[in-house]
Design a protein that fits this description.
The structure holds 2 protein chains of 2 kinds. Chain A is mainly beta. Chain A is built from no helices and 11 strands. At the A-B interface, strand 4, strand 5, strand 9 and strand 10 of A face strand 5 and strand 10 of B.
């Protein structure tokens, strides 16, 4: 089935550093979504992207919908302790308009 | 409306028992989704409803699993004869048709012992 490949799997950074993570697919997607999940909670939507090339910001977060429609990236600027968590990309393919699929996540750790 | 609500938050059950989870979506959302998440993985799609109609079921949803949304509002997910491999976080999400940024609940964590 369809898969989303997220990288890196985990990151250890210093507080204040910028973070970049990405997501790729072998098939074309119509929609890219980025979620954050804290321990014991459900994922929370951070950014939604609907058009190829679209660049969208939400505070310190910026995400882009790749031109090829097969990738997306998420950047976090000036990381703070509450950014710790698991970041998931999710997408909706051109062939399926009814459910989104998720990547395996990037786990972000922030060193004091 | 306080968002998507799931009950219970945690469930520990013995292998072979039946369990039922409930999800109350955001009231104006006509679509409701069930996902399962195991440790270290992203959420995996199980099934979804548009109003009261169940429109798709994943192959992950064996015949021991059944989901309902009788009046197009809340939904239940039942697992019969639970197995240890059913241990996971079961997530419910809702949305308006055509909007794909689903809102997720906090999940029900199932542990089968």
């Amino acid at each position: 089935g369809q898969q989303l490949n997220q990288s890196p799997q985990s990151m250890f950074i210093q507080e204040g550093e910028d973070v970049s993570m990405n997501c790729t697919s072998s098939s074309i997607f119509n929609t890219w979504l980025w979620y954050k999940q804290d321990p014991g909670e459900g994922p929370v939507l951070l950014i939604a992207l609907y058009k190829a090339g679209e660049l969208t910001s939400n505070g310190r977060l910026t995400a882009q919908f790749g031109i090829t429609r097969k990738d997306s990236f998420l950047n976090i600027s000036a990381s703070i302790p509450s950014d710790v968590g698991i970041y998931f990309c999710a997408g909706l393919s051109m062939n399926r308009d009814d459910k989104i699929i998720f990547g395996k996540g990037t786990r972000l750790h922030i060193l004091p | 409306d306080t968002g998507v609500s799931q009950d219970p938050r945690h469930k520990i059950t013995k292998r072979g028992q039946n369990v039922t989870f409930r999800c109350d979506p955001i009231s104006e959302h006509n679509r409701l989704y069930w996902y399962r998440q195991t440790l270290g993985q992203g959420p995996e799609f199980l099934t979804y409803f548009q109003n009261e109609a169940q429109l798709e079921k994943s192959r992950l949803l064996s015949d021991r699993f059944s989901a309902e949304r009788p009046k197009g509002s809340f939904s239940t997910l039942e697992i019969q004869r639970t197995e240890q491999g059913d241990s996971a976080m079961y997530l419910c999400a809702s949305s308006v048709q055509g909007v794909y940024g689903y809102t997720f609940g906090s999940g029900t964590r199932l542990t089968v012992v």
